[in-house]
Amino acid sequence: MVAPLLRAALSTRKTLLRFPSPSLFSTACRKTHCPPPPVAKKVPFSATAHGVTWQDPYHWMSNTSDPDFTSYINQENSYADAFMRETLELQNTLYSEMLSRLPPDITTPSERWGPWLYYQCIPEGKEYPILYRKPAVESKGWVASIFSSSGGGFGREQVLLDWNDIAEKHGYVHVNTCRVSPDHRFLAYTVDTKGDEQFQLQIKDLGNDSVLPQPKVAGVVSLAWAQDSSTLFYTLCDQNLRPYRVLCTKLGSHSGDDAVILTENDSRFCLDIASTKDGKFITVNSNSRTSSEERTIVWFINASNPHTGLQRFCRRVSGVQYFMEHHRGIFYVLTNAPTCKDKNFSGIGLYLARCRVDDAQSANLEDFFIPGDDMCLWDMDIFNGHLVLFLTKNGSVLTCSINMPIDFDNESEMEIDSLDPWFFPLPSDMCIIKPGSNDDFMNTVYRAVVSSPVIPDFTVDYDMSTRTFSIAHQEDVRNISADIQGDGSVGWKEWKDIYEKYSRNEEEVTTIDMHKHGSVWWKDYSEKYYCTMKEVISHDGVRIPMTILHSRAAYREGQSPGLLHGYGAYGDDLDKSWCPDQLSLLDRGWLLAFADVRGGAGPDRSWHERGRGLNKLNSIQDFVSCAQCLIDDGLIHKDRLSALGVSAGCLLVGAAANMHPQLFCAAILKVPFLDVLNSLLDPSLPLTTLDYEEFGNPQNQCCFEYILKYSPYENITEGACCPSMLVSAAFNDSRVGVWEAAKWVAKVRDTTCPSCSSAVILQTSMDEGHFGGGGRFASCREKAYDYAFLIKNSDWQRV
């Protein structure tokens, strides 16, 4: 129920850098004024697969305990410092801007769950959040004793978990999962203090503010409480970070006594556990990592009598997926299984079926709601009085609530209109909506966070009973003027009136342009920053959505530098929500673009399918097409386009730079997945076997030959003038080995133009993992470094 780390707000406007004249740019090589970069040693090594043999003289780097590797990393860090030394003043300026936008402290609006209000706060001067709660009603019993013993009374807040304390003790903190027991007396959480994602299970007694001595288990992923609040189920990882086993522990027992409930022996599948919203059942899913190769088995456990064991709901069927929730004796199931009646289901997305608990088998499911051809169902949430559905219609994202219960004896499938849905209004079609915690099954209010590239995140409470809504909170951004008009309460009333007026119009049921009605009641920067979506024609004629963002005042068409973001894997969204740190680029005239290439999230599930496995080249070509569009349409200067990728997104950037070395002037590759072929050929590496679903298994010759075509490490262009690159890695990264970044930099320097490749730098954090470890101030410092690199290399005259 704990929200992710609160996003920090960032910078103020400073004097803008002037644009160099376009005539200063050419295609000549770049020269650095630094000492020569480090030269990595070569150790002969050959690999063979399917009759193909290749040399990899940097294979030795995969042994991170080799002292020569640590020495090389330290040399590269020193070279990066030297390369960036001339930007120190700029880094400090950027950092100051970002800090000036930060409010002294950040607090989330409280969210009621049972008798408590839960919330997070980053106090003034602190890096990380603290999880708090306070009574929502007058305390009695053991709850009252907590506050009487501390000298407090009704409404006094209690600290549940302080990230800062853990970071000060260990130097690193990553809290992954938090679950409060049904009686609100215990907090179970998993914490990583090294960066290797070996999360340790901790259970805190909130009655006496102490951590229980047992169990102490490492490698824990998901958690679920039984209703007795003393029985806890958890999943355990194997050596490859795959959750493969479900165990059950009793509070006070030794971890060695924990009972094994289920083991998944097939390395292609992971186990996940969750409680149903009402807490009456615990579901156990065995599924693949990717969303397009669903082969799910589902079991469930009676949470009120957990020792009765597992009951199987369905068997594994290729391509079929199930997600279960419970409501008053009925299981509601999201699935894409063949429908049980002669109903035309497109197979894109999911549909909703149901069955009674006492007859809970997939074969007994009855179709309940099957979306039409123009609509896809993706997810659901359930409350005592309402069902929330997450859909897309003609590419637009919709969220709606439906009153519960619904007559189970209705034998026909329901159309969406016959369910009398209330679609949650949004102020703009550029907005995205992210669910809040919403842990309280009895609640009638659905909390969500609404954001767009030009609107800071604001928390909205959608009252599903009255079908009204209110703003609970908006992210505070300092030192920048916003467009705010009128009284907030009046604004919401006007929004409601306009929504009701236009709700009969299907095309405007969830998107209302409030500007044309002259009423704005939240901070909105659309008058300062322009945001639009552009469709780009890819190599095969498919239209690729690309979001474009720039300052209305500082941007200069055809002269401005640009930064293209991409990811394109696992069916995941590319984050385009409000991000204050970007203002430091926007106010310097930069154009930011976000390419929703195939392989990531899209209008339907097929978008992922068309950019994974033997279709992965589509993702890369989509990214190249978006980059070329920015140049060909004159939106940016042709020599000032940079690219940014993170993790699997670096595959896009690296492959695109190999295919078109002159396309980008600079690139940032963070915790990069670049040595694709060699990593996938090594099943001993964490997550490799799970990634076969996404990228293909190179033990298969067809997949091997296809991956060999694009794998960035194998396709560096001999003698090419490569873009400047900032390659960031983490020494303790257990998802993408630190050696991938090191091998890439060493081979680029060895293979491409020596003058250009001297502007390729490797920066490695020696005490962090894949997801970093910095709090709000450290994140500002990292972004200042990244942006200084981009500005240095986009404004660098080529001579």
From TrEMBL:
Serine peptidase whose precise substrate specificity remains unclear. Does not cleave peptides after a arginine or lysine residue. Regulates trans-Golgi network morphology and sorting by regulating the membrane binding of the AP-1 complex. May play a role in the regulation of synaptic vesicle exocytosis. Its EC number is 3.4.21.-. The keyword Chaperone does not apply. This is Prolyl endopeptidase. It comes from the Eukaryota. Keywords: Aminopeptidase, Hydrolase, Protease, Serine protease. The keyword Protease applies. Residues 583-793 form the Peptidase S9 prolyl oligopeptidase catalytic domain. Belongs to the peptidase S9A family. One of its GO terms (biological process) is proteolysis. Residues 37-396 form the Peptidase S9A N-terminal domain. It holds the Pfam family Peptidase_S9. One of its GO terms (molecular function) is aminopeptidase activity.
